[in-house]
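Sample intake sheet
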Amino acid sequence: MRILVVEDEKHLAEALGHLLKKNNYTVDISNDGESGLDNALSGIYDVIVLDVMLPKLDGISILKEIRGEGLDVPVIMLTAKGEISDKVLGLDSGADDYLAKPFNTEELLARIRALGRRRGEIITESALSFGNTSLDTGSLVLKNGTEEVALTLKECELMEFLMLRKNLVASKEQIIEKLWGFESEAEANHVEVYVSFLRKKLKFVHSNISINAIRGVGYKLEVCADV
């Protein structure tokens, strides 16, 4: 699971990053609102931990922008304020959970696990199917009716990412960040290779969906007019 922490108190942000990595999460940290929004809109995160009071752009504005772009990533709001009105504003703006500082780290971890489970249930029930094709992320299998083909882990991760963004274009940069991470040395040709693999496997199961290249932008998953 990849988590974005948007927190301007650097000592707290570093402590949270250490805590989450210790619990086997992949973590990216932003210390201001503008960079936090840029990272959040990449669509690569499974959970976002978002402070309300931030320099350059406040957390509520970030949250509204995220939801305005149609991203349903779970968001936990952090704030030094504990008033009911602040909680209501955050939840009404699209937050999934709310935690007032100072907070117990075990409680934060429990809430992240709960949101991860909730998102997993949603994905399993509906999001990982498109056209006549479904993806089983547990068994790494791509299916169309009785026809199926096994995927490698990276192929499955790429297919999952594209299915979750089926109405949006995914750039090569976003795919690299999601599959290999920000600090990876993976390049655009790595993405092209895995897209090629997936196209062959979609054809093998007679899928009616295709991975279309949007020149100069990235890739988009679409239902074909003809199979």
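Comment: The longest strand covers residues 209-214. Confidence is low (pLDDT under 50) at residues 121-127.
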